[in-house]
Amino acid sequence: MRTWSRKRVVVTGGAGFLGSHLCERLLAEGNDVLCVDNLFSGNRENIVHLMGNPGFEFMRHDVTFPLYLEVDEIYNLACPASPIHYQHDAVQTTKTNVHGAINMLGLAKRVKARILQASTSEVYGDPEQHPQREDYWGHVNPIGLRACYDEGKRCAETLFFDYYRQHGLAIRVVRIFNTYGPRMHPNDGRVVSNFIVQALKNEPITLYGDGSQTRSFCFVDDLITGMIAFMNSPGDFPGPINLGNDHEFTILELARKVIALTGSSSPIVMNPLPSDDPRQRRPDLTRARERLGWEPRIPLDEGLVTTIDYFRKLFQKG
Length: 318
Ligand code: NAD
Ligand code: UDP
Description:
Layout lengths: L7 E5 L4 H12 L3 E6 L18 E5 L12 E4 L6 H6 L1 H22 L2 E7 L26 H21 L3 E6 L2 E2 L10 H10 L4 E4 L5 E3 L1 E2 H12 L9 E3 L4 E3 H12 L5 E4 L14 H7 L7 H18 L1
Helix pairs in contact: 1-6, 3-4, 5-7, 5-9, 7-9
Bound molecules: nicotinamide-adenine-dinucleotide and uridine-5'-diphosphate (UDP).
C-alpha cells in the first residue's frame, strides 16, 4: 500500500543519463518514482540498481502518446540529447519535444501536478551574447540539422509558458548547459564521453574544427541538485533558469585535460566541424544563484576523474 505522505514523481526520460541520476536522488529523498522511457537513447542498465526499491517503477512508454496517471510532480526529460541521437530520427525528435510536452502538460493540468521542463542552452543557438543570460532570445537556424532539437525545445518552452499563463499550471523551466558524468552512453557522440573513451583505448582524439570553440561543463551531481532545488522552490516563479557550470574551456583544452588525466598516448586529430556548431557557450548563473542559492561545486578536473573511473570500470566489465 502507498504511504500517502510520499510524493509520487514521474521522470520522463528516466532511463537516460541525467534521468537515472534524478530517479536515484528522488528515491533517496523519500519519494515514489515512476520512470517513463521508451529506451531510445537510454537503457535498463542505468536503472537496474533501482529496480529492487519498492518506491521505484519503470514503464516503457513513448511520450508522444498520451499517458494517464495520478501524480504530484513531473520532470520532463524525455528527448535524446546528443547530436548523433537526436539527428538520427529528426522528425521523431521534434515530435518528442512538442507532442511529448503537450502530453505531459495535459497530464499535469488534469491532476494539478507541478511540472519541470528540461530545456537546454541550445535555445540560445550559436549565441551572439556571451555569457548567455535567460533574457537573451537566441540565434537559432530554424532549418539546420540541429533545428529538430533546438526549435523543438524552444516550442516546448512556448507550450510550458502558455499553459502557465492560460491554465495557471505550476511550471519550472530549466535551461541545462553541457553536463557530463557516469552513465553517459559510451557511443552517444558527446564530447566528454567521446574523448574519454578514445583516450582509454589510446585511439585518436577526434577534435572537430580547430578546437577553439568553447563549452562550460557541469558535473551531473551539481545539475541534479539544482533541478530538484528549483522544482521544490516556493512561490510560482516559472523560470527559465540556466543551470550549468560557468567555467569555460576550449574543446582543445578539454582534449588535453582528458589525455593528461588518463595518461593516454592518443594523438589529437582534427576533423570537420559539424554544421551550426556553436562557437562559444557559457551560462550566466546569476539567476540560479539568487533564486535558488545554488552553486555548481565540482570542478572539471574532479568530475573528469570520476567519469574516467566509471568508463574504466565499464570497459573492465566488458
Ligand atoms: P539521454 O539521451 O541520455 O536521455 C534521454 C532519455 O529520454 C533516454 O533515456 C531516452 O530513451 C528517452 N526518450 C527519448 N525519446 C523518448 C520518447 N519519445 N518517449 C520516452 N522517452 C524518450 O540524454 P540526457 O543527457 O540524459 O538528457 C536528458 C534531458 O536533458 C533531455 O531532455 C535533454 O535535452 C536535456 N539536456 C541535457 C543536457 C546534457 O548536457 N546532458 C544539456 C541540455 C539539455
Ligand atoms: N566535439 C569534438 N569532438 C567530438 C565530439 C564533439 O570536438 O568527438 C565538439 C563539438 O563539435 C562541439 C563540442 O565538442 O563543439 C561539444 O559537443 P557535444 O556534442 O558534446 O555538445 P554540444 O555541441 O551540443 O554542446
